[in-house]
Amino acid sequence: MRSCPEMAPELGITLPGDSAADNTGETDLSKSKFSQTLQKTVPSSAHETQVAMDDTPVDLEKNGPALRAQHPVLNPPRPPGLWDDLKTTVGEVFLSHEKRFRFLVKEPMSGTISILGSFFPILVWGRNYTIAKFKSDLLAGLTLASLCIPQSIGYATLAKLDPQYGLYTSVVPPLIYAFMGTSREIAIGPVAVVSLLLSAMVQKLEDPVANPIAYTRLALTVTFFAGIFEAAFGFLRLGFLVDFLSHAAIVGFMAGAAIVIGLQQLKGLLGLTHFTVKTDIISVLEVILKSAPKSWSPYNFILGSSFLTFLLITRFLGKRNRKIFWLPAIAPLISVILSTLIVFLTRADEHGVKIVKHIKGGLNPSSVHQLQFDGPHASEVVKIGLIVAVIALTEAIAVGRSFASLKGYHIDGNKDMVAMGFMNIVGSLTSCYAATGSFSRSAVNFSAGCETVMSNIVMAITVALSLELFTRLLYYTPIAILASIILSALPGLIDLNEAYRIWKVDKLDFLACIGAFFGVLFVSVEIGLLVAVIISFAKILLNAIQPGIEALGRFPGTDVFCEVNQYPMAIKTPGILTIRIKSALLCFANANFVKERIIKWVDEKGDDEDCTKGNAEGRSRPKLVILDMSSLMNIDTSGIASLEELQKKLMLHGTQLAIANPRWQVIDKLRLANFVNKTGGRIFLTVGEAMDAFL
Amino acid sequence: MRSCPEMAPELGITLPGDSAADNTGETDLSKSKFSQTLQKTVPSSAHETQVAMDDTPVDLEKNGPALRAQHPVLNPPRPPGLWDDLKTTVGEVFLSHEKRFRFLVKEPMSGTISILGSFFPILVWGRNYTIAKFKSDLLAGLTLASLCIPQSIGYATLAKLDPQYGLYTSVVPPLIYAFMGTSREIAIGPVAVVSLLLSAMVQKLEDPVANPIAYTRLALTVTFFAGIFEAAFGFLRLGFLVDFLSHAAIVGFMAGAAIVIGLQQLKGLLGLTHFTVKTDIISVLEVILKSAPKSWSPYNFILGSSFLTFLLITRFLGKRNRKIFWLPAIAPLISVILSTLIVFLTRADEHGVKIVKHIKGGLNPSSVHQLQFDGPHASEVVKIGLIVAVIALTEAIAVGRSFASLKGYHIDGNKDMVAMGFMNIVGSLTSCYAATGSFSRSAVNFSAGCETVMSNIVMAITVALSLELFTRLLYYTPIAILASIILSALPGLIDLNEAYRIWKVDKLDFLACIGAFFGVLFVSVEIGLLVAVIISFAKILLNAIQPGIEALGRFPGTDVFCEVNQYPMAIKTPGILTIRIKSALLCFANANFVKERIIKWVDEKGDDEDCTKGNAEGRSRPKLVILDMSSLMNIDTSGIASLEELQKKLMLHGTQLAIANPRWQVIDKLRLANFVNKTGGRIFLTVGEAMDAFL
């Protein structure tokens, strides 16, 4: 396709790497000071890394800039290849496990303790646990339980499961996390967004109203797979996968999910019997408005909204005055007790107020036989498990990190993921659905002054006791109250300030945020997530391949060359056009564009719009184009071809091309592609040296 | 989520931009030398671009490095935002059209001529056209026609259309291109890959055997839309979209397509009646082996393969000796004439040799009424049109560019796309299917010494004459010969040398190449393309967000800091850890990873693996970490949050953080996010200045 006539290399130095690459694809091997140094720096297994150089050691201090500029620039050691990178990464994952194992073999006694301690951090911090700490944790745990019981029942209805499943989920997972996790403030249990996500996706496979048993089985199986994925992410140190949902996307997603959850609660608040399985705002509003007002129940609404007002007022007061943080924390429990009493005394359930009715009492039953690994939905269930795992981890890690950062300690993301995984695996065997760290309850836990994760144990025991003793008392609890408890927790998920800050700092980030928001709101939860991920990655792509170039000038009084737009005081050198490529990659997607732009700039005699100094000399055709490649991390075959064409076109009009500061990967590929020999291009360490060599 | 206690800024300089951002989101306005300079450099409409600075002009030459380092670094002009970039891009697209229009209004006479000339380059070069040139073009055109007639018929059968459609496509599109295009050597007509692509995708909608009329209508409609897309790409200057198929992907795709096309020809070569609509190698081989050998026809095979041998030998000879380039060019026509005579004389068609039979004579009929814009397949047809347009343009632009580069002239990609678009739109109205520039015929055209695109006109007229006069003579042409003509052209599509070169230079590029190859071969043409595009973009993503950091050292005898692995002679400064972030973006996908890595390096007291000099001082905990941000083109909210956390964690252990050389977008976002005030971080122009300030 491209046949470039081979040009005699203008450089005096022969490039063995260049010519050898043509013959055998390998570089000559010759011992030198540098190649020996190199063998220390690059893993020795990294293929033929020896550098082709003269045998005589070169004194770089004494020799002039020309030699300095070309010798080491053109003859760097070979960078580690794709294979080496892969080996290093995999090695890092298994090294830590292997080290531990070796230690175990050497010293079985202390090795076992050390391993147990690393899997169960409670064994480490438990040794220094004091009565004083326990007092704080007891108080925090009880406060947590008072908030957790009504919320758990509410979130179970959001997940379209029987109310007791919410309580089950607040018993086993917190206990397991308490033994294995590293965060001290996180409050484990069911959360709104994961409950919504689970029900939104599982009810497409099985109808929760028509077929509740099959639905529950699927929900538990999804929980099992979510646990498997979480544990696997932690064990394989893939914690970074959680970062793939950008902060902006999470802000948008959470806000959208909050509104969707709120809409779902209208069913309970209005006492509707028929509702839609879709979650988008259009479908939900359609159902509600179509049913209006004949099937709206005024009693449900009045009861629900008056308690919602109460909850919101306590929330507001708690925010105004940090000392009464416990008021919003226990307000839900007060609401439940009060409203249950009201309904019981007035027998309002006979006048259309919907009530919870029977909640199965007793501790978590086994659900081992409910897991379903075959059947028509197997692959779907695994997929939902993955999505639930990612969202659950994202929320938990965000919660854990923010509180750890407040108290100044470090949480081990990978260890925490393993803990989350185990708690969900064991949970799925004991009738729990997907649990994670809750934003709102962790904040209450923190405010209540918890010292360790012991508060979770206190909470779990309290919930377990309630399951044994008090479920009968919840018979008359109105569903509208559960809806209002969920509704009152939603404002915490909508962070307008953060959205505004994102808008201010980065418009494209805001696009991901708003995309996730509208995706969740108008289509579905999964689509919202997908939109967010796609916009986030599209943004990275756009940034990586933006076909931009920028003019450089000398910073007054220094040898530093910088962008003239960023530093208006920078001075251009007449007759020389210094250009920096703005993107990190010169590849198929932008190489041609960059080439055309450079040629256009050169043809326009310097550059019209950017030549702010407007000196007349700058307007004649430049004699030299210096291409500063310091931004360029990599180049591909299309990029190299473009550079070759650029060099040829510039030569046609008598303009020379010099390349400054090529990075390791770039210079290596240019050598492999025989670029220097083909074009006679000049390559220098810095822009300044390229300029000096020309002048 | 993150609440960082506001730290008093350590810097002596107040940063109005920082504090103002907190209050109103706008920066103070104060006139200064720099803000005036700025107004020239950035479009004046670019929101509030004034820089907040002291009123007194600062003499940068006289003041010390500290001021130099901080004043301009911390107070750059605002970079153009997303909106400005968009405006500039859109402006560039329409400016050229608008300029032309204004010129037309001012000087209607010369304006019209200039516009006509720019749309029809033939009006420009036609003025200098000479008899000598015409002689060359006439010879080239006739050679071209002799190759084109048999190939066109063959490609039409590959596209599952009647043979005359191939001939039609060699009449109208070349004529239109000749008037509008800018390449001189390109030979326009049907090509193998586009024919395959068209039939592979359209036959999923309509069966070409059971329902040939509906199939033809769809094929013509696809051609129409392909033309619309091509013209739109050209008019909107979206030529760069063609670059989105990386060179490596094209190499793999072409090779895969060649084998798939070859497999399709086995039907003709073996004289099979039943065949599969699938194109993957497994399905095709299955059909062939299942039918073997009972329905294989020996006469077809013997006839086809003997002429294939003849064609391949002429091809080989033509390659060995460039002087007899005409031999492979006219060999197909010779084969057609000879084989037709043989069949006619021996009446071999009565013994099972499949023949072309009736070819409808006469020039292109109108097909305006055959286009079908409604119906069940409308959206599918548009999609296929887009894919065909991209592949057709990719091939044509590659052909055009490579020959233009050989002769040293410039082809206007956008103008050529408009020409291709028009030729396909008009083609679809005159019974032509998708045409583009053919690799093999353009090479023949070039070798035959064509001077201008006039050779295409000669070829089109010759084909038109054949359509009028000679179609009846092709009645007895055996189909096996058409198959062997197509087969003989395929080796040119497989470029093993280039594949090897790609493997040598870039392993990931090779992965895209091989992915496209296997995708086409084992699944389908579209999947092959999709795989290639996905791998290519995944590679960009990987490169852009690689969470790498590298240690820097001072290049001996200079102020330049460079990577110690790339330049083993670089010297680290004891007690100071200088780190460069390797990726172009510090964003949600890698920010956390980069932060953790830096903290790990610092915790490991310098850095074990990279501290090649092994000096003892380097092993004590560094007092200062200098983060060289020169590679970083952009940063997002997650990236800023990571930097804030990094700064806090380093401070805990008494290590200071300094940032060197932040780029325009980066420093702007750090300012907007109030980073400097929050962390008291120090920001410098270069690593050297950061180091001097510390020492």
UniProtKB/TrEMBL annotation, chains A, B:
It comes from the Eukaryota. This is Uncharacterized protein. The lineage of its organism: Eukaryota, Viridiplantae, Streptophyta, Embryophyta, Tracheophyta.
